[in-house]
Amino acid sequence: MRALVVILCFALGLLSSPFGWAQYAESEIQGQIESVDIPANTVMVNGLNYRVAIDAHVEIGGTFGAFTLLQSGMKVRIVYHRISSTEREAIEVETLPDGSVIEGT
């Protein structure tokens, strides 16, 4: 029984920081897609590249979408994890309605 408790504690420790997403704070931006690189799974918004996670929630026009349907010129809201000063991973990408005013512009 004691061995089972030790194993469970170890396993739970692996699922939390620093090995899991808990160590990366979520941030959010809004902007217009400048470019989409499908082979690299990245989008450029506001001059910064965001790698779109394989399991990212992508919503286009209010319904489920796919990363490959994103296009330059679309206004989006991105929720992402900042992995390092140069690496950002998008976990949510949502297109904004036509005529939306992007915050901060």
Summarize the structure.
By secondary structure, the chain is mainly β. The protein has one domain (24-105): Copper binding periplasmic protein CusF (OB fold (Dihydrolipoamide Acetyltransferase, E2P)), CATH 2.40.50.
The CATH topology label is OB fold (Dihydrolipoamide Acetyltransferase, E2P)
- CATH 4th-level superfamily: Copper binding periplasmic protein CusF
**What pattern of helices and strands is seen along the backbone?**
HEEEEEE
**What is the total tally of β strands?**
6
- Named at the architecture level, the CATH assignment is Beta Barrel
Count of helices? 1
Top-tier CATH class: Mainly Beta
Radius of gyration, Cα only, in angstroms?
A: 17 Å
Percent of residues in helices comes to: 10-25%
Spatial separation of the terminal alpha carbons: 59 Å
Summarize the structure in words.
- The chain has a single domain, classed as OB fold (Dihydrolipoamide Acetyltransferase, E2P), CATH 2.40.50.
- 13% of the residues lie in helices and 45% in strands.
- It has one helix spanning 2-15, and strands spanning 26-37, 42-45, 48-60, 63-64, 75-82, 88-95.
- The protein has a 5-stranded mixed β-barrel.
- Strand 5 (75-82) and strand 6 form a beta hairpin.
- It is globular.
- The N and C termini lie far apart (59 Å).
- Mean pLDDT is 83; it is low at 3-19.
Spell out the blueprint of helices and strands.
Elements: H1 2-15, E1 26-37, E2 42-45, E3 48-60, E4 63-64, E5 75-82, E6 88-95
Parallel strand pairs: 3-6
Antiparallel strand pairs: 1-2, 1-5, 2-3, 3-4, 5-6
